[in-house]
Amino acid sequence: MYPEKYEEKSLHEHILLRPDAYIGSIKEHNQPLWIFDEILLNAANNKRRDPSMDSITVKIDAVKKSISVRNNGNGVPVVKHVEKNVYIPQVVFGHHLTSSHFDDNTTGGRIGYGAKLTNIFSAKFTIETADGKNKFKQVFKENMAISSTPIVTPCQSTNKWTQVTFNLT
């Protein structure tokens, strides 16, 4: 009787099973609530890394049920992570508990959940970034369960930006 009641879930399974532990309630509400704004915080944090960044664009498409957040600052480096042997944008947006902000000098995104939680709760999540050398694009689907092979192409040195687009359904 007692052994059956103890379970172990992967981090991904636990996030989907108990979203309130990570982002609050996902139930429909008819009252003002704080919203999960991690992608916007990520874009704003880029200003710390790149003082020349001067634009964040948010597009909401009610028909497609998608939200895009784009900043014109330095993109995420499009190089392979030494230990993981995958591109850094893959690690940042598609691997749990990864971040470059495990310090106390950041507005948000300090624990490595933010973008991944947005990815996990999205039917489709697309990361695109350009670092002045290469442009990167990868699409995740079905709550981050499926990921496309990243597309990496050369770009001009003035081409620096990051855009995240996520679809709720």
Automatic annotation (TrEMBL):
Gene3D superfamilies to which the protein is assigned, alphabetical: Histidine kinase-like ATPase, C-terminal domain
Catalytic activity: ATP-dependent breakage, passage and rejoining of double-stranded DNA
The enzyme's E.C. designation: 5.6.2.2
Any Pfam family: HATPase_c
Keywords recorded for this protein, A-Z: DNA-binding, Isomerase, Topoisomerase
Keyword hit for Isomerase: yes
Enzyme class: isomerase
Record lineage: Eukaryota, Viridiplantae, Streptophyta, Embryophyta, Tracheophyta
PANTHER family: DNA TOPOISOMERASE 2, DNA TOPOISOMERASE/GYRASE
SUPFAM superfamilies: ATPase domain of HSP90 chaperone/DNA topoisomerase II/histidine kinase (SSF55874)
Source organism (scientific name): Camelina sativa
Name assigned to this protein: DNA topoisomerase (ATP-hydrolyzing)
Span of domain Histidine kinase/HSP90-like ATPase: 36-124
Domain of life: Eukaryota
Named cofactor requirement(s): Mg(2+)
